[in-house]
Design brief:
By secondary structure, the chain is of the alpha+beta class. Strand 2 (about 55-65) and strand 3 (about 65-75) form a beta hairpin. The chain has one domain (about 1-140): Lipocalin, CATH 2.40.128. It is globular and about 40 Å long. It starts with a helix and ends with a strand. An 8-stranded antiparallel β-barrel has the order 1-2-3-4-5-6-7-8. The chain has one helix at about 1-30, and strands spanning about 35-40, 55-65, 65-75, 80-90, 95-100, 105-115, 115-120, 130-140.
Length: about 140
């Protein structure tokens, strides 16, 4: 009986160890790639806010010190992209990413579909209309 218990524990432990590897593969497969979309500016002032088109390229996703992180670039589509260090949170029902742009705005996005990230761009020093703007990106490759 003792031997059977040890065998079950060993198999279960192996499966648990493998599950984190599978999670890494699935998380990377879901997030790595080129994402394009738009920020929705508030009201008629949107035109003065600039180009709404955005690109996020996630190059890698890995686990470091027990936390998921990703590396990529982000910016206005066609106008140059800046390096971003991305925090990845898989504790909820869907993976969420967060990063700070070169302009010190914070982007928070949730994987809401196989090829869709939705969330917000929180602007620094925004007016009384609030600082959060809806942001939606679609995976292109």
């Amino acid at each position: 009986m003792k031997l059977l218990t040890l065998a079950v524990v060993a198999v279960f432990g192996t499966l648990l160890g493998m599950s984190s590897g599978w999670a890494q593969v699935d998380l990377a497969k879901s997030l790595v790639g080129k994402w394009e979309g738009e920020v929705t500016w508030a009201g008629s002032a949107g035109a003065s806010m600039g180009d709404p088109n955005r690109t996020l390229i996630i190059r890698s996703v890995e686990q470091k010190d027990g936390k998921w992180v990703a590396a990529g670039t982000y910016g206005v589509t066609g106008k140059g992209l800046g390096k971003v260090d991305i925090e990845v949170d898989e504790s909820g029902s869907r993976p969420t990413i967060r990063f700070v742009t070169g302009g010190q705005s914070t982007v928070r996005l949730t994987l809401t579909g196989a090829k869709e990230l939705t969330g917000t761009l929180s602007l620094v020093g925004a007016s009384q209309r609030g600082s959060e703007r809806p942001l939606r990106l679609e995976k292109k490759d």
